[in-house]
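DUF465 domain-containing protein (Methylocystis parvus), 79 aa
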Amino acid sequence: MSHVAHELHEEFPEHAEAIHNLKAGNAHFARLAEEYHTLNRAIHRMETNVEPADDATIEDLKKKRLTLKDEIAGFLATV
């Protein structure tokens, strides 16, 4: 599979250890990170036409991904 952009460790490289620790120790953060990962992979599949979708669907999913990223960033700002 080709490289998938927007992975959490790429979005927040300075917080790689904190992401790992939060995923292991905070169930809510772990759920957010998993939801982000799943959504990010789905967007990548759609953008590469592995699972074609219309532009409106992709844009809606990107907005959801951004909302998750903002919530994750909020967690990371407190570490």
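Residues 8-77 form one domain. The mean pLDDT is 94. ok done for today
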